[in-house]
Amino acid sequence: MTQKQSNTATMLPEKGPLNKDGKEILLSVKNVDITFGKGDDAVRAVKNASFDILKGETFSLVGESGSGKTTIGRAVIRVNPCAAGEIQYKGVRISGKIPRSLDREVIRNIQMVFQDPAASLNERATVDYIISEGLYNFHLFENEADRVRKVETMIEEVGLLPEHLTRYPHEFSGGQRQRIGLARAMVMEPELVIADEPISALDVSIRAQVLNLMKKFQREREITYLFIAHDLSIVRFISDRIAVIYKGDIVEIAETEELFNYPLHPYTRSLISAIPIPDPKLEKHKVLFTYDPSVHDYSTEKPQLTDIGHNHFVFGNSQEIEQYKAQRETGVPLRSITIAKEDQEEPSAAAEDTTVDEDFLKTPIHDTGSIWLAVLCFFLPPLGIVATLLFKHYHHFRNHRMCKKGTIAGFCVLGVIVVLFLLFLLLSIL
To answer: Which domain holds residue 376?
Structure first.
């Protein structure tokens, strides 16, 4: 579709344009600036943002608080105006002033799930009305029976019951309210859903349920997600591609595993290093990678988002881009998580509990440190010596420690038994 067509269209086409790989581009953000305020008080919240979201994928936008993630999401649903650039949906411009018929189609096809499940629901409306509001506005039902059927089917799909429809939002927990917000969006049968940190306000046990529910809808309805978050560990689970944003600038875009294996921009590395390690001993000695913006010298040449190959885009000037390309072409994954060695003055037994980064990352998947290894080595201490040495040689550090503890305990008990036997024998002779 030409630029002239995209500016004059009044309806959305059935399909969007295709990229170089033949995949349909559902949403395009092109050189978008978003500014709040006027004159000297103006704040440029988003600067020259550009990315494409392909149909059926989960595209995640990650960054710290205040980086501009939600601002971009709200611009896509036409809440925040663009100061420059444009946003296209299926090749049709949807930013700025557009015909009312096109505006209604955009609202119908792009839905949003908000961060705060309490503030995003009308406390004075029943769940039935909250979910049905979009159906009423766009008359997406044939008759009252059809509307009730659609609402009841949707409320069951999100894990709630039809009797919940007569209740009010304050009667539900945070996780249940978020399910209601998800049902409100999905009942419209959208093609694109903007999920603005939909799980950050939920308990850890509920987060996985909501994420699995979103993935279920994606499989069954071919829904595309723009997933906004700050937690990279969650994003890795759900995303196909990830864009990292820092103070309004998108600094890196890549496929999920590509980004985690080759985090080229230092800000991306700092985000990955902040992911908590489940082992408290390793987390205690983890060295955070701190991003310092002063390492960039953009006084002579302005940076731009550049494709360095492998569908990997990085923000930098020409000198930095060459360095990023050289790093990527080595094919050696970059380590962002570093575990410091303990002080040499501490006991050696404690020092063995913490390993350097390379050993931690090389630890095999079966290195679980099972208690049954300690039990086995307790009853068979000679075998425990062999197992301890083998596990240490093959970097099974948790198994090594468990076998060592069991072997030492076994020899101690065996020694006590031998001493008691000798004493008993000596007393019987005397």
So the answer is: 363-429
- CATH number, position 68: 3.40.50.300
- With respect to residue 75, please indicate whether it lies within any of the assigned structural domains: yes
Q: How many CB atoms lie within 10 A of CB 57?
A: 18
Closest-CA residue to 265 (of 288, 237, 244):
244
Which of the listed residues 262, 288, 315 is the one where a domain comes to its end?
262
Q: Are residues 238 and 368 in the same domain?
A: no
Nearest-CA neighbor of 391 among 416, 371, 425, 368?
A: 368
Compute the radius of gyration of the chain from its Cα atoms: 29
Q: Dump the DSSP string for 298-358.
A: -SSS--EEEE-STT-EEEE-HHHHHHHHHHHHT-PPPP--EEPPPPTTS-HHHHTT---HH
The domain boundary residue, chosen from 262, 284, 312: 262
Nearest to 82 by CA among 50, 39, 115: 50
Query: Does residue 399 fall inside a structural domain?
Result: yes
Do 91 and 1 meet the contact criterion of CB atoms below 8 Å apart? Answer: yes
In a domain, 78, yes or no: yes
Q: pLDDT tens digits, the chain, 430 residues: what are they?
A: 444 444 557 788 888 899 888 899 999 999 999 999 888 888 999 999 999 999 999 999 999 988 999 999 999 999 999 999 999 999 999 999 999 999 999 999 999 998 888 888 999 999 999 999 999 999 999 999 999 999 999 999 998 999 999 999 999 988 899 999 999 999 999 999 999 988 887 888 888 888 889 999 999 989 999 999 988 888 888 899 999 999 999 999 999 999 999 999 999 999 999 888 888 888 888 888 889 998 898 988 999 999 998 999 999 999 999 999 999 998 888 888 888 765 444 444 433 444 444 444 455 656 777 888 888 888 888 888 888 888 887 777 788 888 888 889 888 988 888 888 888 888 888 7
Structural domain contains residue 66: yes
Does one domain contain both 253 and 367?
no
Domain count, the chain: 2
Phi and psi of 375, rounded to 5°? -65, -45
Instruction: Look at residues 339, 401, 341, 336 and name the one whose alpha carbon lies nearest to residue 367.
Output: 401
* 225 and 94, same domain (yes or no): yes
